[in-house]
Amino acid sequence: MRAIRTPLLLAAIALAMPNVRAVAQVKVTTSAGDVVIFNQKNLAEHLITVDSVALETAQLAAKRTQNVAVRDFATMLVTDYTARLAAARKAAAEDDVGRQASASDTAGAVGIRALTNLNSLPADSSFDKEFVREQLRLNQQEIVTLKMLGGAAKDDDLKDEIKAALPMHERHLARAREVAAQLGIVIEPPK
Fold first, then answer.
1. Contact between 26 and 152 (Cβ < 8 Å)
2. Domain boundaries in the chain?
3. Cβ proximity of 151 and 26 under 8 Å
């Protein structure tokens, strides 16, 4: 199966599935025609994986950057992801939730590649710009993903985690755009 890769595809699918929140699992057909199914356990695993890698990335940026705006942004991310990760783990630990990886969810692998790339960069403006670009990508993708896949949550605590994660990613995206402008990063519209 191919993984879902573009925010526009995810948004189009989410719009085509207006009652998705009423079901315990979400079926998505990719542009290649593959059917991907996410259930509550997959969603819990997704939240934990994304938050874990994002936390590690933010911690790296907070240590390596020399730019005050980037450091402040990274510090905010560390605080937010630490809290979100603890809450997501708590929700997943419930008997009726659990965790299960989905072979079609590539968010963790994408995040790890981005983290590896950041680790290879010198601690200068190239690091700062790449970190901010990654934050733009991550938060745009997570907003779309959580809106679409949130319907897989049937447990109230997991639903609450989705409700809390969405505005967090929206704040992060807004702040990433501000920092990008300060760094002179041109933000291209999604393809």
1. yes
2. 7-183
3. yes
pLDDT at 132: 98
CA pair distance 75, 56, nearest whole angstrom: 11
Q: Which of 15-19, 108-112, 168-172 has the lowest mean pLDDT?
A: 15-19
Checking phi first, is residue 69 left (phi over 0); if not, alpha (psi -120 to 50) or beta? alpha
pLDDT digits (tens, 9 = 90+) for 7-65: 444 444 444 444 333 336 777 665 555 666 788 899 999 999 999 999 999 999 999 99
Q: Give CA–CA dist 71/75, Å, rounded.
A: 6
DSSP letters spanning 136-183: HHHHHHHHHHHHHHGGG--SHHHHHHHHHHHHHHHHHHHHHHHHHHHH
Q: Which among 179, 168, 186 has a CA at the least distance from the CA of 131? A: 179
Superfamily of domain 7-183: Ferritin, core subunit, four-helix bundle (1.20.1260.10)
**Per-residue pLDDT band at 168 (split at 50, 70, 90):** very high
**In sequence order, which residues have a C-beta less than 8 Å from that of residue 128 and are 6 or more positions away?**
61, 65, 66, 67, 70, 183
Query: CB neighbours (10 Å) of residue 14?
Result: 20
Backbone angles phi, psi at 5, to 5 degrees: -120, -25
